[in-house]
Design goal:
The chain has a single domain, classed as Rhomboid-like fold. The chain is 66% helix and 4% strand. The chain has a two-stranded antiparallel sheet with strand order 1-2. Helix 1 packs antiparallel against helix 5 and helix 7 packs antiparallel against helix 10.
């Protein structure tokens, strides 16, 4: 039993309740003003367990399942391997469960830091969704599987992960700079950075091996 399945279950159930109970949803939103000035620090974590609509929830939960626990079979150019949580368990034994949980919760926390600072005096700013934590999971996965093929739906996965990851960061950066998308791209960037930092702290040789792909 993986922690990922618990995260999926809790997030889906809480999000479904929030769809029909707006008062419940509003209590869980990330509102930096309420966190900083209203002593509601719990919002830093609870916002990651609610989503804006069914599509938002479906996309995030599918991405979490895909990169956290799905087994990738043998395909041309790709060897069979496990996704992130079983990979951490394989490397570190029972501590792998703890490391995955710490990665996910740390990704939630780290991905809120910029919003908390930038919008601390804006009582009207709210955000929600698990994208920051999932970004941490995805980039931890990329670091461990740099030669895996990735892509953007509906196009086939043909780009090596060590190239796709940096391209995705550049794309997110320019969207964050431009603004107006209604998406917290800064949370995606911060989550990705946390994923890289976390895996590097576990074993700096993983980062060195990843960087060798560029030489």
């Amino acid at each position: 039993m993986y922690i990922t399945y618990l995260l999926l279950a809790v997030t889906i159930l809480v999000s479904i309740k929030a769809f029909s109970d707006l008062a419940f949803r509003d209590k869980l939103l990330l509102n930096p003003h309420a966190v900083i000035h209203g002593n509601q620090s719990y919002r830093v974590f609870t916002h990651a367990f609610i989503h804006g609509d069914v599509m938002h929830l479906t996309f995030n939960m599918f991405a979490l399942y895909l990169f956290a626990v799905q087994v990738t079979p043998d395909t041309p150019g790709n060897h069979a391997h496990y996704s992130l949580e079983p990979e951490l368990i394989s490397r570190y034994g029972p501590k792998g469960y703890l490391y995955f949980g710490a990665l996910y919760l740390g990704g939630i926390l780290f991905s809120t830091m910029w919003s908390l600072y930038k919008h601390r005096n804006n009582p009207y700013y709210n955000s929600l969704g698990a994208s920051g934590a999932i970004s941490a999971v995805i980039f931890a996965y990329i670091l461990l599987n740099p030669m895996d093929k990735m892509g953007v739906f509906p196009f086939p996965p043909i780009i090596p992960a060590f190239i796709f990851g940096p391209l995705l960061l550049v794309f997110e950066y320019f969207l964050a700079k431009r603004g107006g998308t209604g998406i917290a791209h800064d949370a995606h960037l911060a989550g990705a950075l946390f994923g890289v930092i976390f895996i590097t702290i576990l074993d700096y040789r993983i980062l060195l091996e990843f960087l060798r792909n560029f030489t």
